Amino acid sequence: MSTAQNMLDDLNDRINDAANAQVSAAIKLVYLNRGLAAMFPKIYRVVSDTTLVTVAGQWEYTIPAVVGDNTKMLRIDLADAYGRNTALDSFEILPTQAGRKLILASAPSVSGRAFRFVAAKQLTQFAAAGDTYDGPPGTEELPVWYALGLVEARRVDDRADYTRYSTVAAQNGVDIGEVMNASQFAFAQFELLLDRFAMPLPAQAG
Q: Residue 195 contacts by C-beta under 8 Å, 6 or more apart in sequence?
């Protein structure tokens, strides 16, 4: 499995910055995380939870955070008396400041029946260079392209400023238009690959 360090190595190779002289390692990790976030919902991981159970007479429930926060709900099932899961019908999902709420059309008559939530969620953000990438195989390059676009949009070479004022200093300078062209190319590659690897979302239950 690929790690954040593998992606950092790839990014550093593209911009010749293994020593982190142009952009710090911490900022590069932030940029990779922005790329991970930008991939959702076209590329996602599937999470599920079965910890929530019915309470007789209760029709409103707080959806567990693992499947309720920053997700797209794919399916909600309810276990029967034998533990078999069937798709839940006639419900609403209401966003609130305290988390997302599951609103049932009618209150259950028995307690202890488990809900099963299945949701699409953003890929896990990197906290350190050793963290593992949990996206689909073959998509590891996407966060690198996104981070590259952000890096290229920065003033990565002090000479970029000098070209605005001095024709002498501009001899080996970097024009701001060239910087932006490189950045836009990286983002275009990100979008191209994102569409190519996009994972279709199943029809939402309910």
A: 42
Q: Based on C-alpha coordinates, what's the Rg of the chain? A: 23
The reported pLDDT for the residue numbered 89 is: 86
CA distance 159 to 179: 12
What's this model's pTM, rounded to 2 decimal places?
Answer: 0.82
Q: What does the pLDDT look like over 29-48, one tens digit per residue?
A: 999 999 999 999 999 999 99
Burial of 22 (0-12, 13-18, 19+ CB in 10 A): middle
Alpha-carbon distance of 184 to 148, in angstroms, equals: 10
C-alpha closest to that of 3 among 101, 144, 115, 107: 144
Domain residue ranges of the chain, discontinuous segments joined by +: 4-43+123-197, 45-121
How many Cβ atoms sit within 10 Å of the Cβ of residue 82? 5
Cβ atoms 140, 6 nearer than 8 A? yes
What sign has the CA pseudo-torsion 65, 68, 70, 73?
positive
